[in-house]
Amino acid sequence: MSDAKVEEMSFEQAMGELEQVVSQLERGDVPLEQSITLYEHGAKLKKHCEAKLKEAEEKVAAITFDGDGAPKGTTPVEGL
Amino acid sequence: MSDLLDDPREGANEPEFTVSEISSAVKRTIEGTFDHVRIRGEVGRVVHARSGHLYFDIKDDRSVLGCTAWKGQAARLTVMPEEGMEIIATGRLTTFPGQSKYQMNVQDVAVAGEGALMAMLEKRKKKLAAEGLFDLDRKQDTPFLPEVIGVVTSPTGAVIRDILHRLRDRFPRKVLIWPVAVQGERCAQEVARAIEGFNAFTDGGALPRPDLIIVARGGGSIEDLWGFNEEIVVRAASASNIPLISAVGHETDTTLIDFASDHRAPTPTAAAERAVPVRAELLARLEETESRRINAMRVALNYRGEKLRDLSRALPRKDALLGQSQQRLDLASARLPSALTARVSFGRSKLSQASGALRPSLLARSLQVAGERVDDRAKRLSPALARRTRTAQDDLSKTAARYNNIALAPQIERRKTDFSNLLARFTQAAKAQQTQHTNKLDALDRLRLTLGYTATLDRGYAVVRGADGTVLTRKKDAKSHVTLEIEFADGTLRLGESGTTKASKTKATDDQGSLF
């Protein structure tokens, strides 16, 4: 179990850890108390992964430039 | 001589040109005739002047042609001439009257033939590879699930559409498009600037920093894709801290940016596939993992429950475990009261045995015996002390007597006499020595007197001195003095002063002193 805060994990990190937790649980060689902790940690990881997957919003913008050609802001791009 | 003079006269009616006039005429002729030409040749010496102008030669096996491209023209060239390159230069011929030269002003440079272009590409690739720009250890992994994807491409056309479609199918994300020209003279510069620009974005800045960059372009001829072979693009891609996927041209086209990028995708669509995972698959994988998690916990609990039941079944009954011990306890506690009674009566009998023999008369008798012994000792104590004192006194007297008997008096007497004798002898010796010294002193004094001049005065000699008291022994010395002093045995006489008596009088005090 890594010490990193679940909320700060990337999807990949959280998913990897969740799979590790589940395999540990499945092996059944951890003490009961620890397996309860693992189970709960797994629930947190799953929630985090789910949230990351739900944030699947498409937002397309093009960069706009000032007179010198330096990026100034963005303008939404639609219909592509 | 006459020949030389004759010649000019013969042609004197032909017009004369100044140098500038003829130069201008030649310039007009050349520019008019070769207004637009394409010339093929190998590039010779190339000079990039600080002014921004470009000077180079093109040549074949016999001739050389000087070429110029002014600052503005040089910037627009799609191919920068390099020494050894086979090119086709397009432009017009002109002259440079300052050096009696003709030259070509170049508007466009194209690599002559695909073979030559590929050769140049190969050379550039080798050079950049030697710098390490393509090293595998420079490659970064693309992120598993980027939050923001920066796409460097043309904002219109199939490429961006393909990318967005595929992203939408797989995992919709935030996409920032950095519009660039994907061919032509501005292409390389804009693409390089876009890559550098995305890298310059900071986390939490006004514009979100992408965690992945895709540089994409559709298929085209090698000339169309040429911008992606330019050094500035390759260097920008290699230096990018943000992982970069290149997707330029069709699968079979390879540009130099593909070697410098972290991942080369064969098409823009493939780039989008590489960029994001499929969301639905991840959801399914998450669901599966979730059910495994719940199942694993259930299995773990069931297994432990089962094991608990098994073990508890095998556990013996409580009565059976405790019965025997209970019996031993019962037995012991039953025996306890009688054992205590027995112990007490045993003790009591031992006490009465011991106290039976203990009577007062026994103690009184032993007290009486001890009393008698004390009285006896007390009586003997006083006489014993007196006896001991006497003995000690006797010892003392004996010792004292021994000291009295020693004859000290005669010894003292003898020492006294010795002392007086010594004293008398010392006095005598001292006196004798003193007399001896006195005599010696007198004799020495007498000797002193006879040796001194004063004794001779008695015998009729006299000492003559000058007024300053110096002794005069020569006549000439005496003459120089006005006054003279003559010392006799009984006094001094002064001569040559106002009165001799006066002089002797002044000396009288001294004489009187010495007389006394």
UniProtKB/TrEMBL annotation, chain A:
It holds the Pfam family Exonuc_VII_S. PANTHER family: EXODEOXYRIBONUCLEASE 7 SMALL SUBUNIT. The gene is xseB. Heterooligomer composed of large and small subunits. InterPro entries: Exonuc_VII_S, Exonuc_VII_ssu_sf. This is Exodeoxyribonuclease 7 small subunit. The keyword Magnesium does not apply. The lineage of its organism: Bacteria, Pseudomonadati, Pseudomonadota, Alphaproteobacteria, Rhodobacterales. It comes from Planktotalea frisia. It comes from the Bacteria. One of its GO terms (biological process) is DNA catabolic process.
Automatic annotation (TrEMBL), chain B:
CDD domains: ExoVII_LU_OBF. This is Exodeoxyribonuclease 7 large subunit. It catalyses: Exonucleolytic cleavage in either 5'- to 3'- or 3'- to 5'-direction to yield nucleoside 5'-phosphates. Its main location: cytoplasm. Keywords: Cytoplasm, Exonuclease, Hydrolase, Nuclease. Pfam families: Exonuc_VII_L, tRNA_anti_2. Its EC number is 3.1.11.6. It comes from the Bacteria. The gene is xseA. Heterooligomer composed of large and small subunits. It is found in: Cytoplasm. Residues 133-360, 365-494 form the Exonuclease VII large subunit C-terminal domain. Coiled coil: none annotated. GO terms for biological process: DNA catabolic process. The keyword Transport does not apply. The keyword tRNA-binding does not apply. Residues 17-109 form the OB-fold nucleic acid binding domain. InterPro entries: Exonuc_VII_L, Exonuc_VII_lsu_C, OB-fold_nuc-bd_dom. The lineage of its organism: Bacteria, Pseudomonadati, Pseudomonadota, Alphaproteobacteria, Rhodobacterales. One of its GO terms (molecular function) is nucleic acid binding. Belongs to the XseA family. Bidirectionally degrades single-stranded DNA into large acid-insoluble oligonucleotides, which are then degraded further into small acid-soluble oligonucleotides.
